[in-house]
Amino acid sequence: MKLLFVCAEVAPFATIGGLAQVSYFLPRALMKLGVDVSVFMPRYGTIDEKKNTIKPILTGLKVPTGEGRGVTELICNVKMREGTKHDPTVYFLENMEYFEKRANVYGYSDDAVRFALLSRGAIEFIKATDMRPTVIHCNDWHTGFLANYLRTIYKEDPALKNISTVFTIHNLKNQGIFDFRYASPMDFDDGKSTTASFFAPQFRKQNALKRGVIYSDLVNTVSETYSREIMTPEYGEGLSELLKELRTKVFGVLNGLDYSDFDPVHDRFIKKNYSWRTLSDRIANKRDLQQSFGLTVDPRIPILAYSGRLDDQKGLDLLIDVLPVLLTEYHVQFVVIGTGQQKYRDFFTKLAIQFPGLVGTHLMSDFVLPRRVFAGADMLLLPSKFEPGGIVVIEGMRYGTVPVVRSTGGLADIVTDFDPEHNTGNGFTFHNYNKLSLFGAIIRAIQVYRNEKLWGELMKRVMKEDVSWEKAACQYIDLYTRAIEFHRDAQNPVSTLGKRIE
After folding, report:
1. pLDDT at residue 500, as a whole number
2. Pairing relationship of beta strands 135-139 and 2-6 according to DSSP bridges
3. Is residue 482 within 8 Å of 245, Cβ to Cβ?
4. Side by side, which strands form the sheet with 359-362?
5. Residue 285: what are its φ and ψ, rounded to 5°?
6. What is the per-residue pLDDT for 494?
7. How many CA atoms lie less than 13 Å away from 396 in the CB half-sphere?
8. Which of 6, 24, 382, 471 is the most exposed place for a label (fewest CB within 10 A)?
9. Given CA atoms 454, 412, 317, 403 in this order, what sign does their dihedral have?
10. Do residues 353 and 467 make contact, with C-beta atoms less than 8 angstroms apart?
11. What pLDDT score does 502 carry?
């Protein structure tokens, strides 16, 4: 099996969110299982070619824009970072106007054009070379047009017609720069009309994510529960009926964690290494965390933590309601790291002033500090409105931080509620999205924390959970195999019908 993984961001070249981590770790896990993997992404101007040993391999690649006159083609180059035994080959689509001259990965009014260029550029690159992937793995709305182009404009091309496609939805809420949920009848995109040219006014109003769902051979989300939730109006972001109609090709695979990278036994960024067998050594990391954030140094005080985007999706409005009460009435500390919406930055800044020695903040991006938080905090709070994957909780659990989460999406697949009677479960969960439900879950966690023996057993269970990328990669190989079968059956409906009759 040959796989081409197409994505807007890939660590370490361009890292904005969890998508970059998936596109880094999943291809490597697949390679360990024998899959021939290559990655295709934009060559952003912030990528250091010398540092990453990137070299040109193809110049003057002509990518059609769909225009009948004027700018009918965009000229691109393709560069390459050669793969190794453990790292996939990475191809970079280079274009001065749409990638190199941009200071950011996202956030431009022409993002629809930029990522349509990525999608069609990947197809033209395959045509221009001897690369013939068995499967193209597309990721999020940025690559939705790829499946659309492949099954319409290029459907009779002998070099392309046998390629299968898998489309992964990492977050259904993100559908591009146009709010399709509130589109007027005039702007409504049925997903099946002819794709407009890059520069046509209606192009930005065509839903690339919707088209990725329609035209891909198989669709998956980053957790099983989320794959079911998006078929309901509450979570479907305007696409629930479409997803229900296509439910036979919609699956869910929980994101994994690279256990060799996130490993408290060997992590050089934490104060003292430890494992589930040497939990007493973890105290040194808790003291280090308290000192680093200006908290009262006392290992007996439970530390509650939040790490991630400061966004209303993450349930931060619930934290705004409960944290002042917790800090006033209970002997706890709180640490927050992340960046995002200003109203949350303002709240946490004022909270630290209001509760000196009890609240610590780091309201900016940092890719190392979360590990120190996970190694020292006792509980990780994530009361999300919805949560497609929940990778932050998996990272925290790897370091022994006990999760307190709302049971939704990937969080429901990862965390099982603690049962004191049978001493089972690996965290504390609640269902209803309200402050009292969250408050109750936190209080239950604090009560168990007071029982040192019970809490120690809970931490060991948390650390021993297997949510590795190797496990997820096996499931993805199964999806790729299904996609190949689905595409073959779609090409030969008569023979498929015959098999069913037999």
Report:
1. 46
2. parallel
3. no
4. 359-362, 333-337, 303-307, 379-382, 402-406, 428-430
5. -70, -30
6. 57
7. 27
8. 471
9. positive
10. no
11. 44
Q: What's phi and psi for 153, nearest 5 deg?
A: -60, -35
24 near 11, Cβ under 8 Å? yes
Dihedral of the CA atoms 325, 332, 316, 233 (nearest 10)? -90
Number of helices (H) and strands (E) in the chain: give both, helices first: 16, 15
| Token pair of 112 as six digits | 């629809």
**C-alpha dihedral, 352 to 356 to 358 to 363, nearest 10°:** 30
Alpha helix stretches (DSSP H) within 208-280: 208-215, 224-229, 240-245
Between CA 308 and CA 335 the distance in angstroms is: 12
Q: Is 168 strand, coil or helix? A: strand
Query: What tokens appear for 223 in the block?
Result: 């957790």
Specify the pairing of strand 73-81 against strand 54-64. antiparallel
Tokens representing 69? Answer: 């006159």
**Whole-number Å distance between alpha carbons of 207 and 188:** 9
Q: What whole-number distance in Å separates Cα of residue 220 and Cα of residue 226?
A: 10
Which residues are within 8 A (CB) of 453 and not within 5 positions of it... i.e. 6 or more apart? none
Q: For the chain, which ranges sit under pLDDT 70? A: 493-502
- The confidence score (pLDDT) of residue 497 equals 43
> What are the structural domains of the chain?
2-256+472-501 (3.40.50.2000), 279-464 (3.40.50.2000)
Q: What is the pTM of this model?
A: 0.90
State how far the alpha carbon of 45 is from the alpha carbons of 92, 95, 103, 261, in Å: 11, 10, 7, 27
40 membership: H or E segment, kind and range: strand 36-42
E strand or H helix that includes residue 304: strand 303-307
* Distance from C-alpha of 240 to C-alpha of 263, rounded to nearest angstrom: 39
Counting every residue written for the chain, the total comes to: 502
